[in-house]
Amino acid sequence: MTIKILSDKLASQIAAGEVIERPASVVKELVENAIDAGATQIDLEIMDAGKKLIQVSDNGQGIPADEIVLAVQRHATSKLSKAEDLFEIRTLGFRGEALASIGSVAKLSLISKHHQAELGAEISVDGGKSEGMKAKSAPIGTIVRVEDLFFNVPARLKFLKSDLTENRQITGLITRYALAYPHIRWQLIQDGRVYLQTTGSGDRQEILQSLFGVNDAKRLLPIHFEDSDFQVEGFISELSLTRSNRRDITLFINGRWVQDSSLTAAVIRAYHTMLMVGRFPVVVLFIQMPPEMVDVNVHPSKAEVRFKNSDAVFSAVQRAIRRGLLAYSPIPDLNTAVLWGQPLKDDSPTQAMQSEVPWQSESRPLEKTPESGHTEQSLQKPLSSEYLPVLRLVGQVAATYLIAEGPDGLYLIDQHAAHERVLFEQMMAQARSGIVPSQTLLESEVIELSPEKAGLLEQRLDVLKNLGFDIETFGPNAFSLRAIPAILAGGDPTQAVHAVVNAFEEDETPLAAEIESLVAARVCKRMAIKAGQILSPEEQKNLLLNLETCQVPRTCPHGRPTMIHLSAMMLERQFGRTGAI
Q1: Are 180 and 140 in contact (CB under 8 A)?
Q2: What phi and psi, each to the nearest 5 degrees, are found at residue 283?
Q3: Which domains does the chain have, with CATH numbers?
Q4: Whether residue 429 has pLDDT greater than 70
């Protein structure tokens, strides 16, 4: 193959691919430029998830008219002058690639007026081709308008996620930068709706409520830590506030949002032995250090960094979080009282008593019985997945399990998993029939969510309506819950809605045919009878009868077993009635 030099157009598009991966990448570059310009107000307008329009307006110092042509060219920047400056970067942008990269894959319009100039200037770039500069009347600051993103590279459009996901990326990015720069007035409008609006008062608590919701924001603990080289401040979650993924661990280094796996590991390590396996904290940290101790020139996206002394940084993060946890988390008082008739939490007294049971089951290798020659495994026949035999209720044990007798032995039934299965099949049957009885609430519940979660819920209101929920928008990022499915009456309706949001947050792109079942499974999990809840004999009997009518009685909707079967032959073996122990 012949070696040849790439055309300027193709080289620009290749370079743009490193900087502009998705609409959120465009927003990030433009917002960072606005922050570097000293803006105290930044307004963003997004249409069609950023594919049709991204407009960022700021009131910063602006660009001089005689420099606006240079601003859209590659490797043109006002933030570096010599090679040594790369090791003391104090601005968010510095590479001089953002505007040129955006202009090569979109239709870019830039209007700016310098704070010392009487008249502004405008320049347009269409697919990498500049149309020249012209004078323009404009307010002090800069307006960047990006239209038809990736219009000349349609293959890139195919790799974008759904509009819901792309909007979430943009909302999450802006909300986090608003948290890092609370003195700036931020406004984010997506498809004509205001998703974020701040006052610029400098109060981070205000932004926390927008990012995590009012309830979770109240459970975040402020921390502050300093040593010779590092300053770590921000917010950490209580031990009771966790997530199933690392998504809500947010880290800023010298005002720059970074996504560093090793630094995230340091945060998780600080919670070691305090959280359950598979659960992660909610953490927002702002780390300040001398610029020469961190290298931000690792990747064109500037999201990755390297530290001169990584061990010192990790140690500072761990100490800051650990001290905060110890300061806010006193040793709890011992409580051995059983709350009869009330659902108990994960750290309930019931669980504590169970952990203190003096006997332990010993694991032994499979042995043959001397009389029959069968192994213990052969004594325990596998459960049939097609039907559940008629069961006779015996009672409840540990406020968690039902004991029932069947024609072939003993059944231990997890009341929470069993109730999940019952609710799920009832809800799905009603949804398929098109007749879902709803229970109107005496007073409407107002549910406030973060901008990201509000967008998720708004996209799925039709699904919830099919399942029996009556929810309407009620102001920015707020919803009014008026009715819930009748089969869920008696539970906490707001918990059901939050369960729906969490389901979509963890599975961003469910198949259309699976959306209803995904929502129903999550709602039923939250609304089902909990472990530790005492049931009356009538409630136990009804649960057992409903489970017998289920099509898939052996597992809950998430695949966890609802019951354990102990055959009569296995019981005889354990009691030595077969002639051997």
Answers
A1: no
A2: -140, 135
A3: 8-202 (3.30.565.10), 219-328 (3.30.230.10), 391-581 (3.30.1540.20)
A4: yes
Are 212 and 171 in contact, with CB atoms under 8 Å apart?
A: no
Residues 6+ apart with CB under 8 A from 340: 399, 534
Phi, psi of 262 (to 5 degrees): -70, -35
pLDDT in tens, 234-246: 999 988 888 888 8
CA angle (76, 299, 174) in 5-degree steps: 80
Give the DSSP H/E element, type plus range, for residue 94: none
How far apart are alpha carbons 22 and 26 in whole angstroms? 7
Is 54 in a helix, a strand, or coil? strand
Structure tokens at 413: 């039934």
| Structure tokens, 212 | 């995590």
CB distance 532 to 344 below 8 Å:
yes
Q: Are strands 107-113 and 256-258 parallel, antiparallel or unpaired?
A: unpaired
Average pLDDT over residues 121-138: 89
Contact 204, 179 (CB under 8 A): yes
pLDDT digits (tens, 9 = 90+) for 460-495: 788 888 888 889 888 778 889 898 888 877 777 787
> How far apart, in whole angstroms, are the C-alpha atoms of residue 133 and residue 123?
5
Question: Tokens 């939050």 belong to which residue?
Answer: 498
Provide the residue count of the chain. 581
Which residues contact residue 511 at a Cβ distance below 8 angstroms, ignoring those fewer than 6 apart? none
Instruction: State the amino acid at position 172 in one-letter form.
Output: G
The pLDDT value recorded for residue 24 is: 93
Distance CA 281, CA 220 (A): 10
The token duo for 568 is 């009569």
415 φ, ψ (degrees, to nearest 5): -65, -35
SS3 234: strand
Type of residue found at 548: E
Q: Decide: helix, strand or coil at residue 336.
A: coil
Q: Can you tell me the distance from the alpha carbon of 342 to that of 535, in angstroms, rounded to the nearest whole number?
A: 10
Alpha-carbon span 197 to 374, nearest angstrom: 72
User: What one-character-per-residue DSSP string does 251-301 give?
Assistant: EEETTEEE--HHHHHHHHHHTTTTS-TT-EE-EEEEEE--GGGEE-TTSTT
> What is the mean pLDDT of the segment spanning 188-200?
91
Mean pLDDT of the chain: 81
User: Exposure of 202 by Cβ count < 10 A (0-12 exposed, 13-18 middle, 19+ buried)?
Assistant: exposed
334-375: per-residue pLDDT in tens?
A: 443 433 344 444 444 333 333 333 333 333 444 444 444 454
Q: What pLDDT sits at residue 382? A: 56
Amino acid, res. 357: V
80 and 94 Cβ atoms separated by less than 8 Å = yes
Listed in sequence order, the residues at least 6 apart from 146 whose beta carbon sits closer than 8 Å to its beta carbon are: 26, 30, 53, 54, 55, 102, 106, 107, 108, 109
Instruction: Record the tokens describing residue 146, joined without a space.
Output: 């990006």
Q: Are strands 409-414 and 401-406 parallel, antiparallel or unpaired?
A: antiparallel
